[in-house]
Structure formats: structure tokens, C-alpha cells
Amino acid sequence: MATIREESDYDSSRSSLTAPGSRRSWISDIGSSSSVSVRSFGGGWDAPAASCRHKPHKANQAEWEAIRRVRAATGHIGLEHFRLVRRLGSGDLGNVYLCQLREPWSTGCLYAMKVVDKDALAFRKKLRRAEVEREILRTLDHPFLPTLYADFEASHYACLVMEFCPGGDLHVARQRQPGRRFSISSARFYVAETVLALEYLHMMGVVYRDLKPENVLVRGDGHIMLSDFDLSLKCDVVPRLLRHNSLPHNASAAAGRADTAKPSCVPPIQPVLSCLFKGVHKCHAKEEAARKKPGDGEADSADGASSEPADTNPELVVEPVSARSKSFVGTHEYLAPEVISGQGHGSAVDWWTLGVFMYEMIYGRTPFKGESNEKTLANIIKQPLAFPRVEAASGREWDEHLRAQDLMSQLLAKNPKKRLGGSTGSAEVKRHDFFRGVNWALVRSVRPPEVPKPPPAVPPLPAQKKVLMMSRKERREPYNPVRSDERFEYF
Ligand SMILES: Nc1ncnc2c1ncn2[C@@H]1O[C@H](COP(=O)(O)OP(=O)(O)OP(=O)(O)O)[C@@H](O)[C@H]1O
């Protein structure tokens, strides 16, 4: 899937790259510069990496421990400490390799190393993108986002050492499903984890902007990890207290539903997929009856008007809902209308892409795809949302489809102000009935729909291994770290 990249957010010069019909991400230059709240990262590649060493979520991992031991023994970590095993994939910025530390005691630990050629990127005026990605990765510490173990340079290459995901991506995983579609319960699992990852990113002031199944990787334990942050927007988050009567209609209604929910609705703590997602909660029945029919793309949601609560319970919003960028960034089929129209966009674009993502996972195609990229963009702006006919095996499955369609309708509201999540952020998305029964705090402990097979064992290193060191003469030559004892084509 083509991704669109426009460099103006980070004061880099503009470039455009389109791949009609493909699903690659791209940026083009039709936007003007971003208006408010875009924060530029300081320092470039030489900036210190102190923050990437503190990752409480992964502190006890063997992978961290191994990196720490190398750092303690040698005072630094660099390319010479790693052995590249094979290429995992390549993207617009560089190649990603499976690798392991050379120290024999650490051979069980596998990492993914993204290698970007800084000279080539500087020539293509994309260096800033790579820097942004590295800065974002350094700050992340969340179960569904990549852990950056180390970043360093080797000659004109910049290397990011991250958690390795052996399960591939959700685009490939979907092709393996019956009918190339995920079941509703599997889709709910992946969408719920994605919501939590987006929520964290937003709270860190990051608008992701490139959600698509190709960028959602599956970790060894079957849980997800969002990848590829070179299109993300970093902005300042200014916490705001939102009063309910100042919310747009649908947000207000969603907030009202939450406020009136009784504590008895809280599901029991059962960190198993089937239990978590069972959702037999009678207290939702009334809301269900009141809920509007799915299929209306704008989801103006007039319901809830009568139940609008008194202004006694204001909501704290700590997500960049009012950030504004005018960059033309994303992947054609996933672009939000406000990105296409260039009117300025903020974190609401991620809730739009969540709607497209969910649609593709459940129906096997995106909702506005046309015969050409131009037609796709026109459809996104004008075409009302429609759902394919589904054949449900039971009444319960039918109800689940209706709930899914209602959520997609609200996420795919063309007006970002009326979009679920567009005003108060993730809280209103998480309250939607589709997630009924999801215990958000324990999603990371839920049993995933599929757990990937462990990756094949990496063959041991050749006996007469030497630490990769470059002579002065070698340093002057074009960089090529291929060692004669390892028949492997690097970078
Ligand atoms: N942590 C990882 N574990 C396993 N595979 C990975 C990992 N990170 C990336 N990959 C693989 O490498 C490919 C390229 O990675 P990535 O998308 O980050 O590169 P990119 O240059 O930023 O690409 P893009 O053109 O989409 O911006 C991915 O499609 C994926 O298959």
C-alpha cells in the first residue's frame, strides 16, 4: 500500500513518491506547512540516546539484559557486536535485518535491526524522517509498541536495534484466514490492542498517521506491535478539561453512556480471550435498543440527546486532538478526508485509519478503494460508507457484526469533529459497545487468537570469529561490512 509523505512537518524539503495501485506509504507536497504544535526533535543523529536505555516494561527481558551486559563490558554498543542473520524486509527508508549479539551466551536473543543509509537519505531529502522515527522510538515504552534496545551509527549507516516480531504482519496473517477475513473476535482482539497503542502514542504527543495491517506486526507471544514511525507527527499535548456540554453531539452521548454505566457492568477479571470478549452484560441492553442503525457514514448520532448528563463530570483530554498539520501523509486507501482536503489534521486521523483498518480486517478490503488512487481519494471524500452483505451463523454473530458496523460508522465519520475519538480521544472509542466486556487493563494478558511458531534456530557462529573492526584503509573505502566468513549480503 503506497504511503504518502510530505516533509513540511519537520522543515525538510519536499519530495513526492507515488506508486499507483500499491499500498506503500508516501508523502507529497500539496500541503502547506503545519500550523501549530508540531514539535521538532533536537539533535539529529548525534543526539544522546539516554532515554532509550530506560524501558521499565521490558526491564527484565533477556534481550535487554544481553544488551546491558555488552554495554557494561565494552562501554558502548555498535554494529561490531551484532551478527546479521537474514533480511526481514525493506521499506522506503532502509532494510530491516534479523540479528543476534555475537557473544555466545546471548545467542537465544534475536533482534530486528533497521539500517538506513544516511547519505542516500540525505540525497533523497528524507533524513529528517529517519531522525523523527528514531526519536519517537527512543521515547516509547509500551507492550504494543517497539522497544528500541540500542541505536548507533556505522560509517554512513544508522542502525536501530528493536524487538523482533517473528509473526509477520497482519496483512499477511489475514491472507491465511478463511475467506481472507478475520473473525469478529480476532478482529476485536487486534483492534483493541491497536486502540491501546494509539492511546499511548497520542498521550505521548505522537499522531501515528500510518496505521494499516502491514504496519501491525505480531510478536512472539501473539500480541501486536505497531511499527514504522517515519510518517508520525510529534506534537505538544496540552491537557484540557472538557465539559460535557461543550462536546460535539456524539462525543457527548458517548461520555453520557459512560457516566451512567453502573459499576456492576464492569466485567470480571478473566484474562482469557473467550471470557474477556463474551460480553453478557444486561446493563447495555437499553443502550442497544436506543442505538442508531449502522451504515451511516457520518454517524451524527442524535441519540443520547435526552440522556446528556449535567456538567458535573468534566473529562480530562490529554491527547493531541487539536494538533494541526497540513502535510499530505499516509496510504491512499487509509487517508482521512481532512488529510486529502488539506484542511489540517490532528489525532482524529488515527481514529479514521482505525475504522479503515477494522473494515479491512473484517471484510477483506478497504471501504473506499477505487480503480485508481485518484478515484480512491474521491471516494473517501464523497462516497457514503457501505458494508458488504454478511452471512452470520447465529443471532449473536449478527449482533456482533452490527456492533462492529456501528463502531466503523462512527470512526469513519467524514467530519473529524463528529468522529468517535475526534473530540475526547481514546476514552470514547474504548466505551463503544463493540468492546463490551473488554477489560482494557488486562488486554496484554489475554490469549491471542494465534501464537506464531518459534522462529527456526539460528546456526551457530563460525569457529574462528573475530570482532568486526575496520582498518584505516577500509574506513576510507565505501562501507561494506560483509565478512568473508559469513556469506551474507548486507544492507
Ligand atoms: N521488529 C520487526 N520484526 C520483524 N520484522 C520487521 C520488524 N520491523 C520491520 N520489519 C519488517 O521490515 C519491513 C520494513 O520495515 P519498515 O516498514 O519499518 O521500513 P520502512 O523503511 O520505514 O518502510 P516504509 O516504506 O513502510 O516506511 C516491514 O515490512 C517488516 O516486514
Automatic annotation (TrEMBL):
Q: Which GO terms describe its biological process?
A: auxin-activated signaling pathway; plant organ development; post-embryonic development; reproductive structure development; shoot system development
Q: Catalyses which reaction? A: L-seryl-[protein] + ATP = O-phospho-L-seryl-[protein] + ADP + H(+); L-threonyl-[protein] + ATP = O-phospho-L-threonyl-[protein] + ADP + H(+)
What domain of life does the native source organism fall in? Eukaryota
**Per its UniProt entry, what is the enzyme's top EC class, as one word?**
transferase
| Basic and acidic residues biased stretches | 287-296, 471-491
Cite the residue spans of the region called Disordered.
Answer: 1-25, 287-315, 469-491
**The organism of origin for this protein:** Panicum hallii
* Coiled-coil residue windows: none
Task: List the protein's name.
Answer: non-specific serine/threonine protein kinase
